[in-house]
Structures are given as structure tokens and as C-alpha cells.
Write the C-alpha cells for this entry.
Amino acid sequence: SKLLEARDLRKSYGNGESRVNVLNGIDLDLEQGTTTALVGASGAGKSTLLHLLGALDHPSGGTVRFRGDDIFRKSDRELAAFRNKSIGFVFQFHHLLPEFSALENVMMPALIARVPRRDAISLASALLADVGLGHRLTHRPGELSGGEQQRVAIARALVLSPDLLLADEPTGNLDMKTSDGVHALLGDLQKKHGLTLVVVTHNERLAAAMGRTVHLTDGKLELTSI
Ligand code: ADP
Ligand code: ADP
């Protein structure tokens, strides 16, 4: 079934002379449980699109329907609740809290959502085991390698069981071998949790291996493979 439907999405930044149109009418459907790789030149608007799909920012025009619901008709409060419940984000830089252990970092969104502490601990431990870090629960981010830090960030993104995982160049900061491992992990988690995954990547080889690829060029999307 259809999880998300974007129609004629537009985004501009700035006003008057300095106005820049980044997205010029994007149509995109995401079927539940599928992977979509989003590729395009630097500055093409990939992050902008991901932010709109995940309701981190408002479009200048167009709609995003999530299970049929027009998300930008929600109030800011409703939108924040929707985002917490339904969307997981992974960014190029992990944004882990340096003073907290891997386990505490992964638990944090659950604690904020008032999941009981014991349940949060068991959820977070299970997810860290899933990402291959069952032996690193008490390590702080600074004691982990780059690939391990990104695995913790992925576990954190999944702790509230989102339907949609949006990953913005999750391996942009990693060497090639580590990148391959993180991409493989994302693929495994996608299958195991039945996630709908959108991943921005520069690596077209990895993109093609993960699912369909869509290209963002001149503010429009082109489907290049299924
Ligand atoms: P990509 O992720 O493909 O590299 P981005 O979505 O980050 O592209 O950026 C697309 C364009 O929009 C770039 O020209 C960028 O400078 C511009 N842009 C992104 N965010 C903002 C913003 N908050 N204000 C003004 N311009 C922005
Ligand atoms: P990689 O080869 O993946 O970059 P490192 O060589 O940085 O990894 O680290 C190897 C292992 O040692 C990692 O699993 C990491 O968790 C652990 N480690 C690295 N630095 C520390 C530290 N300061 N304290 C505890 N464990 C550490």
C-alpha cells in the first residue's frame, strides 16, 4: 500500500531578487516497505526534499500525504507529534550526545516520548544488538569509530518504530569500506522492520543495489531504475 504521496512539491528560499527555486514540482510515491535511493549533484535540493518528506520544513507549494493524511494541514504541534511517531532521521553527521553512552543516546527519544525507562532500556539494547553493537552499550560516542557512531544514530532513529526512515548521506563522512557496511545494515534493517527507506547517496552503485533510484535535477525528479 501507499505510505507517502508527494504532489507538485515546491520549495524556494529567499525573496525578491535573491529568490532561489530549489524544488520545482516534485511528484513522488513511496510504497510501504520499499527502498528509494535519491541521487543528484551537490546543491540539487536532496536535503531540502528529504526535510519536506519528513515534515522538518514546510514547502512553498504542493502536498505530502502520509497514509492519505495531508500532513501540512496539521498544526505545528500535531506535526511534531506526527514526526516523532512516524519518521526516523539519520544525517551525515551523527549528532549523538557526547556525554551519554550509546545506550543512553538510543534511549533518549523513547524517554522523551514517556516510554517507561525499563522498556526504553530493553528496546535500545535490542536495537544496538541489531546494528552489531551489543558489546558497546556503555561506550560514549568519542570511544566509537565513525561507522559505529553512525550505527548508534541508526539505532536511535528506529527506537520509536517509525514507518519511514529518511537517511541524508548517512555514509558521507565515512570511508568506502565502512560505507558499504552501513548501507548493508540499512538494507537489512529495512527488511527486518518492514521500513520504508529513502536514502540520499552519492554512490550510484550502492544506490542501484538497494532499490529504485530517483535523480533530482533542475528541481525535478527523474526515475532511472526500478
Ligand atoms: P543537496 O542536499 O542536494 O546538496 P540542499 O537541499 O542542501 O541540496 O540545497 C539546495 C539549494 O538550496 C542550495 O543551493 C542551497 O544553497 C539552498 N538552500 C538550502 N537550504 C537553504 C536555506 N535554509 N536558505 C537558503 N538557501 C538554502
Ligand atoms: P575503526 O577501525 O572501525 O575505525 P577504531 O580503530 O577507532 O575503529 O576502534 C576500534 C575499536 O576500539 C572500536 O570498536 C571502538 O569501539 C573501540 N575504541 C576506540 N577508541 C576507544 C576508547 N577511547 N575507549 C574505548 N573503546 C575504544
Summary: The longest helix spans residues 176-193. The two ends are 17 Å apart (CA to CA). The mean pLDDT is 94. The CA atoms of residues 101 and 138 lie 5 Å apart.
